[in-house]
Amino acid sequence: MNIRHWKRDTCRLCSSKSLEKVLNLKPVPIGEKYSSSPFDIESERFPIDLYNCRDCSCIQVLDNVDQEFLWSEYTYFSGQTDSIIDHQEDFSEYVCDNFQFNDTPKVIDIGSNDGTLLKAFERRGFDIFGVDPAETVASAAEQQGVKTLVALFSDKIIDDLPPSFQKVDLITAFNVFAHSDDMQGMISGVSKLLNPNGLFCFEVQYLVPILDKYLLGTIFHEHMIHYSVTSANNFMKANGFKIIDLQFNNIQKGSIIIFATRASNSLFAKEVVNKTLANEEADGYLDGSKFKAFDQYIQDTRSKISDLKSEIANNGKKICGFGAARSGPTLAVQFGLENIISYLIDDHPSKCGKFAPFENLEVRPSDSIKENPPEYIVVLAWIHTKRIIKNNKEYIDQGGTMIALWPEYKEISKENFNQWLEIH
Fold this sequence. Notes:
This protein is 31% helix and 23% strand. It is of the alpha/beta class and 424 residues long. Strand 20 (401-404) and strand 21 form a beta hairpin. Helix 2 (82-98) runs parallel beside helix 3. The relative contact order is 0.11.
């Protein structure tokens, strides 16, 4: 398949050309493209190097992959995860408790997925409407009664919205406001839709924990921007908005919800906003220098895996990967886990029994571990490392070894299983 790919030469947020590469990474295939039969040729790989904008402090991937290809056949559904449902309920309650709306408020959710967040606001008296580029999740939303426009959100789709939703009181964008090559079109669309005293809330992964915790698994083609509050603030100010509140959470091991209104709004910023802006600068998160330690973490882990590969090759042992995750190719390629994984394990109905774009590996159900246990299982679904290792105690007790890649490389056997769980 010929996939359209191109590279920007300007910042995604401010269009500056003053860009510096801060993390050099190996190209990886798109992770979420599974086939019911083996691929005829190996999937194409695309760069995911990170760059820093010297003018607005935006950390970003400059390489673009065709957006329609990225979002078709999307397999993540918000309503399948209890913690996400609870998180979005808590957020909607916080918004209703802390901000004033009229008696019949309207909300549009950008990247509305299966409508889970919108249903939370509907229960609190809002009229709701969703916009999402993926047919798979939009269809699920429609089945729940959530009207959804299938489109990539930008100012270009305003006329495609129902007339009653061309002015709204609240716009939400959870884990999508870093996923577009047309950020100017996105913020322009928000500006056109939002009422003068309206509220714009977006959740993104936060740069500080990415750097502090070495969250390599969050770097892939769909995540085009890795926000600091500083870069978000610069973008908001340049487009007539101001940040008035922040909420930090542990979604994807470190995310932030940013609350913004028009600059002309009378609401004042909470103390947490100015404090966070000052801390980011004082603690050195804005100049790209902290990526040196990040790169060293990758190299150190790659060295340990090199020793493991020698052990597997010299002794005829087998290793499989647990989790056909979107982040899997990033971890496997950067850490040097190429040409040694025999198959992947994942029970997700949209993946199990299919073949992954990374090395054409078959995705098998977790029951296959018992049928023919490999000597090693490496956890590629890094966010769920502890749960996966804990749930496979029987495999470990029978002599198998599980490998954690995050928060650091560790081979877990029955000898150190309990100790590892206590620490993590």
